[in-house]
Amino acid sequence: MNALQALLLAALQGATELFPVSSLGHAVLLPALAGWHFNQAAPIFLPFLVMLHLGTAAALLLYFRSEWWLIALGVLGLSDPHQRQESRRVFLLIVVATVPAVIIGFALQHFVQRLFGTPVAAALFLIANAALLLVGERLRGSGRRALDTLTPTDAVVIGLWQCLAFLPGISRSGATMVGGLARGIDHEDAAHFSFLIATPVILGAGVLEVPKLLRAGMPHGAFGIAVIAAVAAGVTAFASTAFLMRYFRNHDAWALAPFAWYCAALGLGALVMLYA
Questions:
Q1: pTM of this prediction?
Q2: In terms of Cα–Cα distance, which of 63, 130, 122 is closest to 264?
Q3: What is the C-alpha separation between 199 and 207, in angstroms, rounded?
Q4: For residue 95, what are the CA distances in angstroms to 5, 42, 98, 150?
Q5: Residue 145 — φ and ψ, nearest 5°?
Q6: How far apart are CA 183 and CA 160, in angstroms?
Q7: How far apart are CA 175 and CA 167, in angstroms?
Q8: 161 CB-near residues (< 8 Å, 6+ apart)
Q9: For 173, which of 8, 27, 181, 202 is 20 to 30 Å away at the CA?
Q10: Closest by alpha carbon to 17, among 181, 194, 227?
């Protein structure tokens, strides 16, 4: 992988990680469709993608910095009693929603890693992601719950939905939003909670995978390119987050449908190109 390819992948990852269209699916398909000749199944490829995700995590921390600051103050007991209770409640929900991803991620790590070098699998899962998003719109209840009414049970359910994203082509943000819609919150709140719980999952993956990147016998300068690519991913992720929060606020009636049709078209088109 050369520097230009790395930066293009970074921009793509940053733009698609928060959109419900699967950044990993795009990262697997782009090299195959563009004719880039590098081994996506190589041990270095997944850690490189995780570096890009660290850029995304930094962007999320920056965008929601005020909320994370209040959570930190509450957890440490440095805020007033009411804010302390609410901050600790939100922190508990984030932790509970993260636990399923940690457990299932460890259990399926080797199986899932083999799929990252399989563009056909990514295309098929993109089509499955389209169906998931359309089902999510159908799962919405007639009532509307506020985000501050979520319970630990709701968080566990949303966390289980998040685990679908271990399959390249299934969107993490899309799956968690569908989980949130199924629990009765609207698109904006579902996206908000999805972005909050993304941060510990992505940071945790980075802690595990970045040391592998350092030990993978990279060519000279490759780690520096990975760091620059992570910064590029973070910049595009911040812009994507700002856009999506406004988008979901203003298009609550049908917000996921355009992304579903995009994923279906991309997945089907990719299958045609791959087999042609």
A1: 0.87
A2: 130
A3: 12
A4: 35, 32, 5, 13
A5: -95, 150
A6: 13
A7: 11
A8: 175, 176, 178, 179, 182
A9: 8
A10: 194
* pLDDT beyond 80 at 211: no
Residue bearing the bigger pLDDT, 193 or 202: 193
Stated as kind and residue range, the H or E segment containing 12 is helix 3-16
C-alpha span between 109 and 166 (Å, rounded): 9
Backbone angles phi, psi at 253, to 5 degrees: -70, -30
- pLDDT exceeds cutoff 70 at 114: no
Q: Are 87 and 74 contacting, i.e. CB atoms less than 8 angstroms apart? A: yes
Per DSSP (E only), the strands in 143-255 are: none
Nearest to 125 by CA among 40, 31, 225, 22: 22
Residue 185 bridge partners (DSSP): 145
Sign of CA dihedral 255, 160, 43, 128: negative
